């Protein structure tokens, strides 16, 4: 395998910094000679890297003042199909299909060791006894008919009690959705139009990126550090553009596992109020802490009604339920419900089963037991990761959620590793799935909650072997 030209390393480094938000829109780039001196390369190398970035629209020159980071144009939207044409169907592939790809692989691959999916695994189903509630509900005649478009009234009442936030005091402030993805789609459709810009931390949940890109939105990335979204960078971004909303996973972030500190939560809310920008808070992982509880939700600190709260039972219970909810001001929820009317309602059987589960007080014991199991699974996976430290593997211990976010050594290609793992029956997620574009970057995501301990041992042994083999090939 031939060595790549030096300029591609410079190009890839700058490209990743732009895609991750480390170089925010409007940021000036160093002059060619200065960057060449910093990186220890020739000026021509930097000139060529800049030219490639400029050709792709990542940066632009301004007469007399140098080069600056540009806002990326929206990805192509899914377009109408000309049914009389024999071609053009490729327009349906306007944005990445990571979710479809992962689901297809698990359907096609018999009994994979699955570190790619973000869910609690089948082993928590038996201990939860939730299937008993489904069976009992299935015996009730109302479970086979429509319920309110806004959602089962008793479930919405129970959710208000479960959330325990003074900002959400009435079931009229809650709409039940088909998982949080439908909730995010409805919210986005109400708040933004094609060509509008929105802000999100980067990397972020690929389902949100796929949705935003399919709707033709311009996505402005903001980087994270150990305390969550970089609010200082966000403030600079807001000074340059006025996004329609900000989407964030502030607690046990997907994919990095990081949590926005309390101090930054307060600063984020202050910025939201100052610039008049709503915040969409995706709080799917809040109750999945492995030790101490996280800071309060943004919605619980919201004094102006600017936070739209999004959650789902896909993480608390099981993904196939497809039951989530949106909680916000009454006027916004009324609009959301009118839009949801187009899809009629959410499955009644699941809503009734979840309502019975909540009414009996069964959710908290289930979560207590699940968190105990997840902590054990995380510890097992981390023991395997510790043995890989000599290879240059780095990670942060998650305080909650489902994931380890691994930094690989420079010579290991994450996409190549993902392919090799798949061939050996192990599924992992490549880090650039959580970026705006496919990019050379050093990360993979491993879910520690989906598999039982013995499968974690088997899967991690395969990953370790492949990492050693790839390391040897590159030395």
Automatic annotation (TrEMBL):
Keywords: Aminotransferase, DNA-binding, Pyridoxal phosphate, Transcription, Transcription regulation, Transferase. The keyword Ribonucleoprotein does not apply. One of its GO terms (molecular function) is pyridoxal phosphate binding. PROSITE patterns: HTH_GNTR. Residues 4-72 form the HTH gntR-type domain. Its cofactor is pyridoxal 5'-phosphate. It holds the Pfam family Aminotran_1_2. In the C-terminal section; belongs to the class-I pyridoxal-phosphate-dependent aminotransferase family. Belongs to the class-I pyridoxal-phosphate-dependent aminotransferase family. Homodimer. This is Transcriptional regulator.
